[in-house]
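Below is one protein, fold included:
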Amino acid sequence: VKGDLYIRENDGDIDAEDGTTVDVQVVTDPDSVSISQIILPLPGYNIQYPPNDVGELYTKMLRDDGIEMSKNNKIPESTAKGSYRKLFQRATNLKWDIVGGKENKDQLDSTADQMVSAARLTFELESGCYATMMLRELMLSTMSRGCKVNQKTMST
């Protein structure tokens, strides 16, 4: 969306450990930026907010809560430097395995949409990403699909 914030693919980390400012760009042509480049600010005194409706929402929420981000603020929570997080983060080295007896593995047919009772997942995420969020997203889509199947079964 025009006005969103992004970093170029080859800019590396979005959290500069050494305190240097990350080269944040503003989307002017949405077709020239991939969604994987879009970032959102974590509130702080040293970050740039998007110059669009999202940025206005950040500003309004902080103002409504009486929060003014400043290095010299007396409220410790208001002295955060701030940071950025990617809107979407892709997991790497994703592997999965069915947990249980051999009979479960033998029953899976690649042509059918099979359900398993337990699986073990391993994957890697960048710093600042939460595995519980990824698992929640996986379970939501799996559970949603399961609910639709159950609704069809119940209605027939």
Residues 9 and 66 are 36 Å apart (CA to CA). Helices lie at 53-64, 102-107, 131-155. Residues 131-155 form the longest helix (25 residues).
